Amino acid sequence: SDVIDEFSLNNVCETALGVKLNDIDGESEYRAAIHNFGTIQAKRTCNPLMYYRIIFYLFGQYSESKRYIEIIHNFSGKIISKKREEFLKDKGRNIDKENSEIKTRYAMLDTLLYEEAQGLIDHQAICEEVDTFMFEGFDTTSTCLKLVLLNLGQYPDVQERCHQEIASLTDFENLTVFDFNNLEYLGCVVKETLRMHPSVPFIGRQCTKETVLNGLILPTNTQISIHIYDIMRDSKHFPEPSVFKPERFLPENTRNMHPFAFVPFSAGLRNCIGQKFAMLEIKAALVAIIRTYRVLPVTRMKDLVLEYGITLRTKQKLFVKLKPRIN
């Protein structure tokens, strides 16, 4: 579990923010703060009295929540400061959208700092974007990747089919988005894992106008909790919902699927803007692992004890064994 958590955080830092985790202190404290803050917010969601700020302040875990938020902000602040130093040292290589000769790969944070230099965004807005990207992109991806590995260990036939598909790739040093998108069965395995164990088990929405749902009147501004976990285990759309079947998501089996039956990234106008990035990140990690190692089971899916939270969690740490493949 810890290895995947560290990898996921380092990956989002390096790919999206352009900063290596080794250069920043406080990584383990940050991960713990994310976990603890999420636990507090999940408990608050389940207690309508805590919706009122004054009650949460007086009787809830306000002080703890505030302390975790400070840790989260401080860590992201260190990342921004580190990147800003590099940016200022290298002004001659600013993003020049009109200069086609510059081929340097820029991270999202480079773009934000460039926009700040142009007066199009301020420091506070950059902090908010970085916090959002890290908070949403670290824990969710880590959870999914761990559970996919557990499934691969538990279903060797599924793992072997994934390995054969990956082996069909030729130039492993220069894989493209097109190559990853062509890993059809591996994508099915990831999707089936997300269907059974969505990284975000529920989402909140607010009625923008009065709505009638199954005869129940929902007034304007009603807060709604949508249980994604239950939606994707509905036997009406997924027969034998408790059985792991990646084939459900092969093209020929999804043509008639309801557009809102599979919603691990939510749906509609407020769906997850990072879903393509997340799928690419997960596939890239799995290609590297499956190509080199055989995944063997340690923790069994049937032994998982799920824990309620903003993101799906397990009470126990998760383990698999990696055995080097012999060519």
Automatic annotation (TrEMBL):
The yes or no answer to whether the keyword RNA-binding is present is no
Q: Which Pfam family is an annotated match for this chain, by its short name?
A: p450
Task: Tell me the InterPro entries matching this sequence.
Answer: Cyt_P450, Cyt_P450_CS, Cyt_P450_E_grp-I, Cyt_P450_sf, Cytochrome_P450_Monoox
Positions of heme binding: C272
Query: From the UniProt record, which GO molecular function terms apply?
Result: heme binding; iron ion binding; monooxygenase activity; oxidoreductase activity, acting on paired donors, with incorporation or reduction of molecular oxygen
- Look up the domain of life of the source: Eukaryota
So which cofactors does this thing need? heme
As for family, the record states: Belongs to the cytochrome P450 family.
**Main function:** May be involved in the metabolism of insect hormones and in the breakdown of synthetic insecticides.
Q: What is this protein called?
A: Cytochrome P450
The scientific name of the source species is: Glossina austeni (Savannah tsetse fly)
